[in-house]
Amino acid sequence: MEHFIQLARQLNKEIMIESKSPYDPVCPVHTPHPWQMIGCGNYAAVFVHPDYPHYVVKIYGRDEHGLLEEKKVYERLGTHPSFSICYYTESRYLILKRIQGVTLYDCVHKGIKIPEHIIYDIDEALRYARRKGLKPSDVHGKNVMISGNKGIIVDVSDFYKMEDCRKWKDLRKAYFTFYKKTLYHFPVKIPYFVLNGIRVGYRYYRMLKSYKAVK
């Protein structure tokens, strides 16, 4: 682990991460060899080194205060089969246990069936997090992965926030009212541009709902 920490420190010094919009994922300008970027989200990008396939380095590109909160979230969660583990943190980055699998988002893109028990795995994981005093937020198709035939939540960075979040409730509803009755039985590959259009449309739908609720 000590050698990997040194590699992570060097990566942190060399990498530059930017975002064109606060609504779009962050993106590294250049990834030093032999590191590979395996994911990026609203705040951070995730990298893996070929010599250490069981670890990832999550580097924040903005809202670095959230890094300390994410560390606290992992401390509260402890060890649970539906979450990763945080091994180490320093300025701007965390070292986490790598979860290998396929996200629900990519399952729909690739035409891979999403079994019903995966949804129940996530339900149980969210109940567990609430029992630990957390308020799960931002749980959606890109943050939920099927790994070893089990549902895993791969991003807990917003679990410390106190506002209500309907993303998982809405995704769960879409699974049982639409997906289970159609794509589950007749899997087809859905292009990313279609999925991204749905993602953007959903964001504006929730914004409109919030606006009407305030009025």
From TrEMBL:
This protein's record includes keyword Iron:
no
* MF (Gene Ontology): protein serine/threonine kinase activity
Concerning InterPro entries, the annotation shows: Kinase-like_dom_sf, Meiotic_Drive_Suppr_Kinase
Going by the UniProt record, its keywords in alphabetical order are:
Kinase, Serine/threonine-protein kinase, Transferase
| Matches recorded under SUPFAM superfamilies | Protein kinase-like (PK-like)
Query: Organism's domain of life?
Result: Bacteria
Against PANTHER family, the record matches this protein to: SERINE/THREONINE-PROTEIN KINASE YRZF-RELATED, SERINE_THREONINE-PROTEIN KINASE YRZF-RELATED
Supply the name of the protein.
Answer: Serine/threonine protein kinase
Q: Which organism is it from?
A: Fictibacillus phosphorivorans
